[in-house]
Design goal:
heterodimer, A: mainly alpha, 9 helices, 0% strand, flat, B: Rossmann fold, 2 domains, six-stranded mixed β-sheet, 10 strands, 37% helix
C-alpha cells in the first residue's frame, strides 16, 4: 500500500507538468483564434470604410490572380486527367464507364478545383504575402507607414484580402473548365470515348449549384489565404527567423482552415 | 513669456511581460529645441520614442503633444497628431517596392493629397536639400548605399515640413565621415524648418553636434537633463561613465547602485 502511495506521489508532479503543458497549449490556441478573429473583423471594417487604395487592389489582382493562373491551370488539368483514368479503372469493373464524365465534372467543380486551387494559392500567395509584410514589419516599414499618416491595415492588408476574395473564384472557374477539359482529353484520346456523348453527359449531370458552391468556397478560401498571410506577416517576430516562422505559419494555418471550411461549407450546401 | 513645451512626459511606464522597460519617464521638450536622449542599449530609448509616436501604447503616465494627451487617445486624434511628426528610422525603413522619389513624397501624396506630379517635384527639392538630386529619383532603395538610404530617409522625414522630427540612432552603421555629414544635415534641416527635434543615440560625437539639451536615460528613467555645455560637468557618475565610455562605473557595477540606494 505504502509503495502504491509512493508511486502516485512520484507521478503527481509528472501529471501536473502534463496538465500544465496541455493547459498552456490550449490557452495559446484560444489566444491565437481570438487574435485572428479580431484581425479579420478589423480587416472587414477597413474594407467597408474609405479611403480604399484602388490602384493597390488592382495590382494585387495581377499578383494574386493573374500570376497564379499557370499553377492553378496545371493543377486542374492534371487532376481532371488523373480523375478520368482512375475512375475508368474503378468503373470498368462494373461496366459503368459512362459515369466517368459525371465523376469528373462533379468532383472538379464541387471539391477538387476549389480545394486544390486554394491550397496551391496558399503556398504561392499566402507565403509571399507573409514574407513581404513580415519583412516590412521587421525593417520598421510598417511603423514608417504609421508615421506618414497611412493606416497599414488599409494600405497593406485590405488590397490583398479583397484581391484574394475576388480572384480565387475567377481562378477556380477557369480551373473548372480546364479540369473538365483534362478529363475530356483522357476520356476521348486515351480511353476511346466518343467526344459527343462525353460532353452530353457532362452537361446533363452538371447543375448550377455544383459550380456556384465551388465558387463560394473559392471566395472563402481566397479570403482565408490572404488573411492568414497578412495576419502572420503583420505579427511577425524579429529577424529572419521571425519572417521564416510567419511564412510557414501562414501556409500551414491557411491550408488547415481551407480543409476545415471546405467541410463546413459542403455540409451547408449539400446536406 | 513662458516657454511652451512641445512634448511633456510625466511618469510614463511601459512593460513587456515582466520586463519593465520604462519606469516613470519625465521629460519636457521645449518648442524649437533639439533634445538628444543618450543611454546604453536596452535602456528604453527607442521605447520612449515609440510611446510618444503611439507606435507603442504606454501603460501608465501622461504624454502631451502641444498640450493634447496621447496616452489612450482615439485613433483619429492619433492620426491627426501624426501629421505633426517626421521620423528618421534607424534602418531607414524605406519602402523597397517604391522608387526613391515616391518614398520621399509618400507623406505628401497620402497624407496631404498633393498630386503625383507636384509631389515628385517637391521630393526632388527635398533630395537636393540632403545633397542628392534627380539622378537617383527613379532608383529603388536597394540600389543605394547605407549612407544614401539614410539621406533619403531624412528627406522623407522632412518632406511634409513637420513640426516635430524624431531621429532614431541617425548615425548608427555609418562611417565617421558619413555620420558627420548626416549630423550636419540634421542640424541644417531642423534649423531650416524651425522644428522641434528629439534624437536618440549612443554616439556622443553626434549627440554633442545635434543637441542643445541632453537627457540621459538609465533603467527606464531619465537620470540627468541639462544643456549640452554642462555635459562634461554634470556631476553625475552615470553620465560621466557613459560619455567617457568607461567599462567600470555605476552603470556596469550593480554593487555601487546598491550602495547608492542605501
Amino acid at each position: 500500500m505504502n509503495k502504491a502511495v509512493q508511486v502516485l506521489h512520484d507521478k503527481v508532479p509528472l501529471l501536473g507538468n502534463m496538465c500544465q503543458a496541455i493547459g498552456h497549449s490550449l490557452l495559446n490556441v484560444v489566444q491565437a483564434l481570438g487574435s485572428i478573429t479580431l484581425f479579420a473583423l478589423d480587416t472587414i471594417r477597413h474594407c467597408l470604410t474609405p479611403p480604399l487604395f484602388v490602384r493597390h487592389i488592382f495590382r494585387q489582382f495581377i499578383d494574386i490572380g493573374y500570376y497564379s493562373l499557370p499553377v492553378v491551370g496545371m493543377t486542374a488539368l492534371f487532376t481532371g486527367m488523373v480523375l478520368a483514368l482512375q475512375s475508368y479503372t474503378g468503373f470498368s469493373r462494373f461496366n459503368a464507364e459512362s459515369a466517368i464524365a459525371s465523376v469528373v465534372v462533379l468532383s472538379i467543380t464541387r471539391e477538387l478545383s476549389p480545394v486544390l486551387a486554394g491550397l496551391m494559392v496558399a503556398g504561392r500567395v499566402g507565403a509571399a504575402i507573409a514574407a513581404e509584410i513580415g519583412t516590412m514589419r521587421v525593417t520598421e516599414q510598417i511603423d514608417a507607414l504609421k508615421t506618414l499618416s497611412v493606416n497599414p491595415m488599409k494600405y497593406l492588408v485590405v488590397p490583398r484580402v479583397v484581391a484574394g476574395t475576388i480572384m480565387l473564384p475567377i481562378l477556380v472557374l477557369i480551373g473548372d473548365i480546364i479540369g473538365v477539359y483534362g478529363g475530356y482529353i483522357v476520356s476521348t484520346h486515351v480511353l476511346g470515348f466518343s467526344s459527343g456523348s462525353y460532353l452530353y453527359q457532362t452537361w446533363q449531370v452538371m447543375e448550377e449549384m455544383d459550380v456556384v458552391s465551388g465558387l463560394v468556397k473559392a471566395a472563402v478560401f481566397g479570403f482565408l489565404v490572404a488573411l492568414m498571410g497578412c495576419f502572420h506577416g503583420y505579427n511577425s517576430g524579429r529577424g529572419a527567423q521571425g519572417v521564416g516562422a510567419a511564412t510557414t505559419n501562414a501556409v500551414v494555418t491557411a491550408s488547415i482552415l481551407i480543409l476545415i471550411f471546405n467541410y463546413l461549407l459542403t455540409q451547408v450546401f449539400f446536406s | 513669456m513662458t516657454i511652451r513645451n512641445k512634448i511633456e512626459m510625466r511618469g510614463v511606464t511601459k512593460s513587456f511581460g515582466t520586463k519593465h522597460v520604462l519606469q516613470g519617464v519625465d521629460m519636457d521638450l521645449p518648442v524649437g529645441s533639439s533634445m538628444v536622449i543618450i543611454g546604453g542599449s536596452g535602456t528604453g530609448k527607442s521605447v520612449t520614442l515609440k510611446c510618444i509616436l503611439g507606435l507603442l501604447q504606454a501603460d501608465n503616465g501622461s504624454i502631451k503633444v502641444d498640450g493634447v494627451e496621447v496616452v489612450g487617445a482615439s485613433t483619429r486624434t492619433r492620426e491627426e497628431m501624426m501629421k505633426k511628426f517626421g521620423m528618421l528610422f534607424q534602418g531607414g525603413a524605406l519602402f523597397d517596392s517604391l522608387p526613391i522619389w515616391h518614398n520621399v513624397a509618400f507623406g505628401l501624396i497620402h497624407g496631404k493629397d498633393v498630386s503625383k506630379k507636384e509631389a515628385r517635384h517637391l521630393a526632388i527639392e527635398k533630395l537636393e536639400q540632403v545633397g542628392m538630386g534627380e539622378a537617383i529619383a527613379d532608383l529603388y532603395p536597394a540600389e543605394l548605399s547605407g549612407g544614401m538610404q539614410k539621406r533619403v530617409s531624412l528627406a522623407r522625414a522632412i518632406a511634409t515640413n513637420p513640426e516635430i522630427i524624431f531621429f532614431d540612432e541617425p548615425t548608427t552603421g555609418l562611417d565617421p565621415i558619413m555620420a558627420d555629414v548626416i549630423n550636419d544635415l540634421i542640424v541644417q534641416c531642423v534649423k531650416d524648418l524651425g522644428a522641434t527635434a528629439l534624437t536618440i543615440t549612443h554616439d556622443m560625437a553626434s549627440a554633442r553636434k545635434i543637441a542643445d539639451h541632453i537627457s540621459m536615460i538609465h533603467q527606464g528613467k531619465i537620470i540627468w537633463t541639462g544643456p549640452v555645455a554642462d555635459l562634461d560637468q554634470s556631476g553625475n557618475p552615470y553620465v560621466d561613465q557613459f560619455i567617457h565610455g568607461r567599462a567600470d562605473g555605476p552603470i556596469t557595477d550593480p554593487q555601487s547602485e546598491l550602495l547608492k540606494l542605501i
